[in-house]
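Milestone 3.1: sequence recovery, worked example.
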């Protein structure tokens, strides 16, 4: 199966994070590390360093799983918008 058909290509994902909440978002399975795209995110409201982002590439039998974790340190609920970065 082609990597592009197994990924979240050009899809925007939004999620809300409550204070001190951690969420994990799977972003696709890729055949090679060179196939993994970069992603960009923004938060509303802009909380600066109030949201930490942890991207991970996990090698498994069926390919490389791209996973992003978002941890909120903000004192309010934050919306996070994640999409594939323009190259």
């Amino acid at each position: 199966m082609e990597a592009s058909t197994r990924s979240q290509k050009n899809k925007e994902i939004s999620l809300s994070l409550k204070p001190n909440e951690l969420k994990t978002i799977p972003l696709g399975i890729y055949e090679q590390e060179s196939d993994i795209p970069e992603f960009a995110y923004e938060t509303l409201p802009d909380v600066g360093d109030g949201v930490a982002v942890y991207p991970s590439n996990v090698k498994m039998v069926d390919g490389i799983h791209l996973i992003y974790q978002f941890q909120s340190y903000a004192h309010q609920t934050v919306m996070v918008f994640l999409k594939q970065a323009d190259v």
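Strands lie at 13-17, 22-30, 39-44, 51-60, 63-72, 78-84. The first strand starts at residue 13 and ends at 17.
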